[in-house]
Write a structure and sequence with these properties.
This protein is an all-alpha fold. The chain contains 4 helices and no strands.
């Protein structure tokens, strides 16, 4: 059964979509596995139980040797062209 918003009425209800068996393991229901909402529904159910935590996307820049080389090369090209070096990312030394 679907609500007005398009999601099933059981959407995110952990007791219905992923009850635990006698050993304490989560058992997704066979009917849920056929549903188009299975992934977001199970994630929502696990969030309400405190078993799913979304990791915030890291805003830190990944530093690699190739990345540092390309940054230095780019800044040297700018300086050779008579332009000021980029101030948005400091040059690690």
């Amino acid at each position: 059964m679907q609500e007005e918003g398009g999601t099933p009425t059981c959407y995110g209800d952990a007791a219905k979509v992923c009850p635990k068996d006698e050993d304490g393991f989560i058992q997704p229901q066979p009917t849920c596995l056929k549903c188009t909402w299975v992934r977001p529904c199970l994630q929502e159910a696990l969030k309400t139980q405190g078993l799913w935590k979304e990791e915030p996307e890291s805003t830190a820049e990944i530093q690699t040797p190739v990345g540092r080389f390309l940054r230095r090369w780019s800044e040297r090209k700018r300086m050779a062209a008579g332009k000021a070096p980029s101030k948005e990312t400091p040059h690690p030394r």
